[in-house]
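Is glutamine placement plausible here? Inputs below.
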Amino acid sequence: MDTGSVLSTIAAEVQPLVGQGAVASYIPPLAAIDPARFGLAVRATDGAEHAVGDATERFSIQSIAKVLSLAVAMDLEGDTLWARVGREPSGTAFNSLVQLEADGGVPRNPMINAGALVVMDAVLAHTGPDATPVLDLVRAATDDATLTVDGAVAEAEIATAHRTRALAHYLKAFGTLRGDPDTVVEAYCRLCALSMSCVELCRAFTFLATGGHAPSGQQVISTRQAKRLNAIMLTCGVYDEAGDFAYRVGLPAKSGVGGGIVAVMPGEFVAATWSPGLGPRGNSVAGTMALELLTTYTGRSVF
Ligand code: GLN
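Reply from A.M.:
I modeled the complex. Tokens:
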């Protein structure tokens, strides 16, 4: 079957799952999203793109952005970053305070919220109070200068980020954060509010399938960092569902509570899916199934 037919087959097969689960309701702009949306896009490393459903509609990428800020922090900070954040799967919720306490103030990995705050702190230490370099990376990786944060989502995130603020202040109390915790939280919330479509996400994450090269050919990160980011996504990218996701899908991936998931087959393709209904671990129900079917029908996975 050609890729276009595979995507059409998957879209039809996941239809009964679209709308299942719960749409993120912690801020009004996300709670208002129609749960019946579903999109899937695949971009091969040779540039061939295929898409089905709502794959060109922009949505809130939320925690998918944590991979992009980590890429920038690894570049700016080098290995010293790992003194302040670990690289092990969490096994607890992405916003757990208990885990941060248990881990002595050093977040388990950069994909959970506490870890992403440390990553953002590292970025800001090099750039000043906003995270423009992360946006620059996204724009360079996608070759699209129009990509930006959704102001309404960002404001709502900042207004309601009580748990994230608690994590940031707790990190500060442990001495793990260097900068001002509230500045870090605001930059983190703005990053979570990036709006992108499945097709745009495939382009933005192409560098993880090509050893660091954007679709334009520009090397945006080193081959070694691309390998490391894929490893972190595989083990930590879908939080406490990492084991089940690896079993079912078999690809490094990163999810967000907006219902998006990006998955990478190094050397071959990037896939991105969007459907807002989330399972109990905060990962898209229909999106996870779409990716499971993609690796099943194409016979391609890292395993
Ligand atoms: N903005 C969300 C939060 O910080 C992002 C979480 C997610 O996408 N998993 O809670």
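Short version: The beta strands are 39-44, 49-53, 59-60, 195-196, 253-255, 260-265, 269-274.
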